[in-house]
Structure formats: C-alpha cells, structure tokens
C-alpha cells in the first residue's frame, strides 16, 4: 500500500483528496495545511489527520502530493526529496528557475519518482488528438479565464499559459530559437494578459494568448501541419481533424476539393472522446510509475522546460516595459 500525504488542501487540494480516496493501492496518511479553518473543515469532512509540521507528515509517507501555493513548492519538495520520498507537485514546478534546478538535482540524487501536475496532458480531447499530431508547423493557442484572486501570487504566464507551454513543447520537440512577448498588468502587480510568439529551430511557430481578466472562458489549441489541421477544445472536450484522406481512414466525412495540383479528397473527423477524470488519471499515472518503476508521464525535466520558456517570456515582457518606459 502506497502511503500518500497531501500538502495544501485548499480548492485544488480537495480535488486531490477526493481522487486519492478512490485510487486503489493508496493509503491517505494525512495532510498539512497552515490554515486552521481550512484544516478543521477537512478533518471533519474526510476524517483525516492534520499534521502540524511539514516534516512530521513527510516522515510518515512514501509519496508527497504538493498542492500548496507555488511559493511553497520548493520548501516542501526539497524536504521530501532529501528524505527520499516520491513527489507529485502541481504546476508550475517552482517559483523560480533556480528553485527548479535545485529540485531537479535532488530528484536525481534521491532516485525517486517525480511528476509535475500539467493536467491538460490528460484532458480527453488532447488524448484523442495526440495520435494525429505529427510535425506541427504553426500553432495558435488561446487560454482565457475570468478573474479569480486565487493563483494571482504569480503572473498569468505561470498561472495559465504554463499549461500550453508544456503542451506545445511536448508536441513540437524542437529547441526554442526565439521568443517575443508583450503583457499587461491590469488587476494585479504582474501580467494578467499576455501574447507570445515562439519560433522553434525546426521552423514551427506558435502564437499563445493567455488572459485571466476575460468575460468568457476559452481553452483552445489549433495545430497546422502538412496535409492536416487539428483543433483541440480543452474546455468543451472536443477534437476536430481536417486532413487529406487516406485509404485507411474510416468513419469520416469527406469531400473532393479541386486544387492547382489536382483533385484531393478532404476528410473531416471528430475522434471519439473517451471521457475521463484528468486529475484522477494523472494521480494514477504517478502511482503506477512508483509501483511499476517506470518514468512519470510529466517529469521534473518537462516541468523545468515549461518554466524556462515561461521565464524567457517574463524577461521579454519586462524588457519591453523598461524600453517603453
């Protein structure tokens, strides 16, 4: 039985608690949260033991689930790693690149499993589309959210765009060549809306827009590659694929299109979406990596690469603001 402790039982932490309780092979040992009111409510609702100190809980577990605010990730992760505990940590990996680098170093030294909670990797719309993605050359991303004070201890880049940076980097699989960015702080002291253009060494270009002050929610990615367009709606959990029809294609709507190079048969498909619980799925993947000793699906290196891109974006925005000032 894998003994798990949860660090941080706020809004998202409760989702983790609910899912851990349903996952086979796991024993929830207890939780840590410095907020007395929140802790009392969780103790009453879940019948779980509250630990007064981070270190006390770490001593009793095999794996730490870190769902605390980003500025506490480093402290909890490093303490757990120094005690050779497996770690799942919510995105972003840490508050700074220096913290993330130290975490990566400790993961290697501890020889444990480490996973970053980039939950969109487990979104059913993304899972349905992933097999169609070959070598995207142009990507358009929009992630818009209504304002919520929760999570505003970091910029919109680390709060929202980090999801899409992870997705884009995992799909393109090419080093970043150049980044240009602009952002504006509207409701907080850090950028609340940002637009970014990333150019990759293989020629791919990605345009990303994130906002946490929008009237309506949106979480969409459009990918263009040779002979295909792929649209993923993370919010509505829908996927659309438009491509040159192959003889092996089945169950698709198709039509003939006259082009300068002759007639082509265009196929439009809506891949079947296998509904799932993305949070439960990522936690189960973490458990499986520990139990079966295989790599986690979103490693500390993946988390660092997304953070590195995010930091480059923040630097570009900062430099632009200084120049304009």
Q: Your description of this structure?
A:
- The chain is of the alpha/beta class.
- The chain folds into two domains: 2-112, NAD(P)-binding Rossmann-like Domain (Rossmann fold), CATH 3.40.50; 121-278 and 309-324, 2-Layer Sandwich (Dihydrodipicolinate Reductase, domain 2), CATH 3.30.360.
- 35% of the residues lie in helices and 29% in strands.
- It has nine helices and 14 strands.
- It has helices spanning 11-20, 36-46, 54-59, 73-82, 97-110, 124-130, 156-172, 278-292, 300-324, and strands at 2-7, 26-32, 63-66, 86-90, 114-117, 138-144, 176-184, 193-200, 205-211, 218-225, 228-233, 238-244, 253-259, 262-269.
- Strands 7-8-9-6-10-11-12-14-13 form a nine-stranded mixed beta sheet. A five-stranded parallel beta sheet has the order 2-1-3-4-5, sandwiched between helices.
- β8 (193-200) and β9 form a beta hairpin.
- α4 (73-82) packs parallel to α5 (97-110), α5 (97-110) packs antiparallel against α9 and α7 (156-172) crosses α9.
- The longest helix has 25 residues, at 300-324.
- It is globular, with a radius of gyration of 21 Å.
- 39% of the residues are buried.
- The model has no long low-confidence stretch (mean pLDDT 91).
């Amino acid at each position: 039985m894998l003994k798990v402790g949860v660090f941080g039982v706020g809004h998202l932490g409760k989702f983790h608690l609910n899912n851990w309780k349903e996952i086979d092979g796991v024993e929830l040992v207890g939780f840590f949260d410095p907020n007395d009111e929140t802790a009392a409510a969780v103790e009453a609702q879940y019948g779980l033991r509250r630990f007064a100190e981070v270190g006390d809980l770490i001593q009793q577990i095999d794996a730490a689930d870190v769902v605390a605010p980003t500025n506490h990730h480093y402290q909890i992760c490093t303490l757990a790693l120094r005690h050779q505990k497996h770690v799942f940590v919510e995105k972003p990996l840490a508050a700074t690149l220096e913290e993330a680098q130290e975490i990566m170093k400790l993961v290697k030294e501890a020889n444990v499993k480490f996973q970053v909670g980039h939950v969109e990797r487990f979104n059913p719309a993304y899972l349905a589309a992933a097999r169609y993605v070959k070598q995207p050359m142009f990507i358009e991303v929009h992630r818009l959210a209504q304002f919520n004070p929760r999570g505003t201890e970091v910029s919109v880049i680390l709060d929202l765009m980090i999801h899409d940076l992870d997705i884009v980097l995992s799909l393109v699989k090419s080093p970043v060549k150049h980044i240009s960015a602009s952002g504006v702080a509207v409701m907080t002291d850090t950028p609340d809306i940002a637009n970014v253009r990333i150019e990759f060494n293989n020629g791919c270009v990605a345009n990303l827009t994130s906002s946490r002050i929008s009237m309506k929610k949106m979480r969409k990615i459009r990918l263009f590659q040779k002979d295909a367009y792929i649209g993923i709606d993370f919010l509505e959990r829908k996927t659309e694929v438009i491509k040159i029809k192959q003889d092996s294609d089945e169950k698709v709507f198709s039509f003939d299109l006259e082009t300068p190079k002759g007639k082509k048969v265009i196929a439009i498909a809506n891949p079947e979406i296998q509904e799932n619980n993305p949070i439960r799925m990522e936690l189960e993947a973490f458990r499986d990596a520990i139990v079966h000793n295989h790599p986690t699906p979103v490693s500390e290196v993946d988390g660092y690469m997304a953070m590195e891109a995010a930091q480059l974006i923040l630097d570009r925005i900062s430099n632009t603001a200084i120049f304009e000032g």
